[in-house]
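for the writeup, i need someone to sanity check this before i put it in the appendix. the sequnce is what the collaborator sent (i think, or maybe the updated version? ugh). structure was predicted straight from it, no edits. if anything looks off just tell me and ill rerun, i have time this weekend
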Amino acid sequence: MDTNISVKQVLQDTHSFYLQIKKAYEASDYARRYPLGIHWISNMVELLALIQRETDPDAKLRIIQETIMYSINTKDDDLKNRMVDWYIEYFKSRGVDVFGLDPSLQESSYSNPANCVVRGGRLFAPDFLRTVILALNVQRYCALPKGNFNILELGAGYGGLARTLKLFFPKATYVITDIPETLYFSATFLRLNFTEGKFLYVTEPSMLQQPLSNYDFVFVPTMFAEGLQKERFELFCNTASLGEMKNSVIRYWMDFVQNKTTVKYFYGLNRFLNTIDPVTEEARLDENCCSVSFDSWWRILQWQLDPPFARCPYLETLCSRNLEIIAERMNKEERSADSNTKRSKQLIESIEKQDWFTCPRVDNYRVCFEEKGESWPLTSTRASNDLSPDLTMNGTLFALWEAIRLNPDSHKVSMMLRYLKLLSRGTHFEEEYYYLDLLKTLTPGADAPGSFKRVPGESALLKRMVHAVTTRSMRASIKRNLERLYHGDEKSSH
């Protein structure tokens, strides 16, 4: 690769690549079978306008980083300084001297300068520091080879995480599969940042028959991704975008990772337990299975909802609540259905002794238990408003999630629904509807208590009714009636 390649040449190459794969994507069966989720339907308008409008790649990359499509940044001087300082303190809390890392680990000169600040002679932006945290977590939990190996990222955004992981693992071949509009930006950004790298723009499936190890970066439009099935990937990454896909598309990609290709480690940071309004956000009911679609043949290495690095009080609250999962794929000789069943049973037996399930109370200075728990939790107790549920692998939520993953049955799913009700405090988690449907699947011929009743035409009609209402009190009244329709009598769910 010519190290003096011009910015103009990069843009020409990327644009030519985009035009070829855009046409192929629109004509493909993939685009018809796996449509975009509602989030990306709206994003597409902005992406297409930016691709067509701007001629300067610097401007394209700068503008895309001004939006919230791929990251949360700000040009407000006070806020961005506070955000960067918060992340630096987070690194310190983990015993990481961010200034002691390799000098190349700083923000790209092709990133939006308005998002950046200088600390210790290094250029930092909040989004870049987030990617460093993710790379450190990968490095901590995944025993990756020292030589060449393959990384596959699904949905790489503008390429920020790809750049950081390549800096951490410079000998890796980094493969990105994505829709054409996003590949346009990641290909531009990475080509500008790695001028000595070797790049493969896949415009037809036959191009994937050559050794990928010859390249630093390989850009694969999603409709050609099946050509990767013969490859082995030491690491698969996805952050955010699985949670923005329709369930049919999520299932396609999880099947791809789990059954179609060979993956050693999985890194994911995606939506889990976000509260929704089932009327005004009805589309989320078909985009709610990204963090619950892991089969039983993973060894979970790290699992945490709302991990500490995601709790920056400046603008991070605009992001979805995410679950970090790092998992290792078991070899076939390690897999045992009996072991999974035994482990699942052990987890549930432990949970069944916990207070939220047994509902203890005090009567005549003695501890006793209520079968229905109608007076539990008691006021003036920690249980009445638990401000710090354990969201790590040591907590109840993981134990329920893991028990269901290893060996699902109606009892475990019912327990999960009951625990989610306790956590949600009267709101609705989008995964609640996934678990309700799973419960119905596991109990054929029986409607689950409080199940989401999909009456033909009724949901759309009631949704139109709510949107037609202008006063808050009337909206609230209709919403309560909808909740009764969808969930039944609240007492019946104990």
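The two ends are 65 Å apart (CA to CA). The chain is about 40% helix and 15% strand.
thx in advance!!
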